[in-house]
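request received
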Amino acid sequence: MEVLYFAWVRERIGLPRERVETQAATVAELVEELRAREDRYAAAFADLTALRVALDQELANFDAPLAGVREVAFFPPMTGG
Amino acid sequence: MRIAVQSEAFDLGAEVSAFAAEVRGAGAVVSFTGLVRDEGGRLSAMEIEHYPGMTEKAIAGIVEKAARRWSLADALVIHRHGRLEPGEAIMMVATAAPHRADAFAAAEFLMDYLKSRAPFWKKEIGADGAEWVAAKDADEDALNRW
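response:
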């Protein structure tokens, strides 16, 4: 699946997007896999209350299933307007 | 309904005039425009990042929510991204309704939702460096009143 990062999540990880091969069943499991990769991922995902997630461009929860999902995006709370 | 997510500046007067001229069945048009504050001279620019694709969908969903709730004849949302200078217009909404109460309420609703449910992120660029703008609890609380 494609994993996208925005704002300071993108800056901490150092990538705007990447392709991730995963068997993770939920967003939370995917986060655990990413955290275990490298310090920069652990830093970006240190506090999940500071993060939001979208699955195929719809806001979702961290316990949401990933079955059939093509695009996961992680970002801080939005500041539009 | 028109939604535009763009880096280019927009002409506020022309947009509101065209919106009011084209709408049918309305007796009231309300518009709101958000500008980049200079924060007492501290801010030299604002950079706005967004999530292409999701942004347009999220805004369309917010406008549809408003249209279910109020009697809206039309709505317009323009939101910019990229680098903006203090004083520049970041975004605007315009709503048209048979009566002003619906037009005002829908415009406020759109603004509250655009602030925390449309995927934009603001970064303030100042003399001392750059900092991401943090979402405020008040922004989230503002949604509860609807």
